Amino acid sequence: MSNSLRLSGAVLAAAFLLGTAACGTSSPSPAASPATGTSAPGEKPSGSGGLVLQVRDGGGLVPVSPAANIPRFSLYEDGTLVTSPATKRSGLPGLRVAHLSAGEVRTVVGAAHDAGLPHSGPLGPAPPADGPVRSYTLDGKLTTTVAPALRDCTRQRELCALDKRLDSLAEPSGAYRYSVMAAVFNESGKGRSPGAATWPLGRLSTAGEPTSAGRCLLLRGTDLKRVREAARTATSSAWTDGTATYRMALRPLLPGEDSCADVVATD
User: Fold this and answer.
1) Nearest CA to 239 among 226, 230, 248, 251?
2) Roughly what angle, to the nearest 10 degrees, separates helices 102-114 and 157-170?
3) The pLDDT of residue 89
């Protein structure tokens, strides 16, 4: 995946001009308006211009696969902000999307730099072994810190303020609508396990393609609809095709992603 993570001076200048022009019109552009953030059914937000800042939570309990670790925040140059809530109500990730103004994007990037990002090596106290961590990618560079729950905000005030700002900007959001979702799975046992959801698309042993995180199957159209319907009542990550049980992560593709390689490579 070739999305640039650097907000160039040219892009900042363009964003400033866009924000200035919007102030003089009665109908602000979609990227600049505090709208619901929803897009047309079956479509995903554009996320044009490349990724600016991405925040991930990891460590602690090992997820089903690396692909299960959906980024907590993904901010794009056009103001698209895709967020992943900490909890979900079903087997489907409840991703949300908001659209920030050009000024809000500049403010977030400035707050990230004020917090010391990007930083070579861990920022602040080193995360405990196997403990929860939060990572930030800015300007193409990864910075790792302890999870917010373990952070001392009296010593990392700016970083805590950045997290709060992102949370507040994500609040007026709508459902993230997508047309492609990846199913990443690994066999966990033969036969049907109690409580496993029934996979509606046939045998999983040869479905999709092999990756470093397990087999990966991209779902579109009718197949996507059937899996979404089945996942709404799923109570765990266990799925069965009748012959074996699999641990599975369902991962909507984010703006700029279009393949299993993108999903696995970025997680």
Assistant:
1) 248
2) 160
3) 58
pLDDT in tens, 180-213: 999 999 999 999 888 999 999 999 999 999 998 8
Mean pLDDT of 204-230: 95
Token digits for 33?
A: 């308006």
Token pair belonging to 57: 């939570």
- Are 100 and 75 a contacting pair, CB within 8 Å? yes
Residue with tokens 């050009």: 102
User: pLDDT > 70: what percent of the chain?
Assistant: 75
What is the C-alpha separation between 70 and 180, in angstroms, rounded?
A: 15
